[in-house]
Amino acid sequence: MRNFRELEVWKSGITLVKQVYTLIESLPDSEKFGLKSQISRCVVSIPANIAEGCAKDSQKDFVRFLQISLGSAFELETHLIICSELSYISNQEKIIIEINTLQKKIKALINYSKSQY
User: Residue 58 region, left (φ>0) first, then alpha (ψ -120 to 50), else beta?
Assistant: First the structure.
């Protein structure tokens, strides 16, 4: 069993959750059950799936949960782009860069973990 608290990708995911939750506070109340809900679910899913994957016995299962986490990171990026296009948020470039960095870290961990099969 892996200790998820030691993984940099998990730590980065937790930091991202805090940043995104602060960001979505500015979304309109009309998006409470729309974009706000979708964004909060997918951002929390990133570190949660990394942690869940750490509990799995096989490397293959661990990779599967990392892939789910990566998918959530891409979903998050898409939701934030939509928010920007709708003029709900501005200056999201910094957080998009952080998301892209996390996506690359998760993909690198996936590739490394696959080499350990």
Answer: beta
Q: Is the CB of residue 98 less than 8 Å from the CB of residue 16?
A: yes
Given a contact cutoff of 8 angstroms between Cβ atoms, the answer to whether 13 and 69 are in contact is: yes
Write the burial class of residue 39 (CB in 10 Å: 0-12 exposed, 13-18 middle, 19+ buried).
buried
Percentage helix, strand, coil, to 5, in the chain?
A: 80, 0, 20
Give residues with Cβ within 8 angstroms of 105, minimum separation 6: 8, 9, 12
Q: Which residues contact 96 (CB under 8 A, 6 or more apart)?
A: 77, 80, 81
Q: Which two tokens stand for residue 20?
A: 């995104």
Asked whether the beta carbons of 92 and 80 are under 8 A apart, the reply is yes
pTM above 0.70, yes or no: yes
Residue type at position 84: S
Amino acid in position 4: F
The string of pLDDT tens digits covering residues 75-98 is 999 999 999 999 999 888 999 999
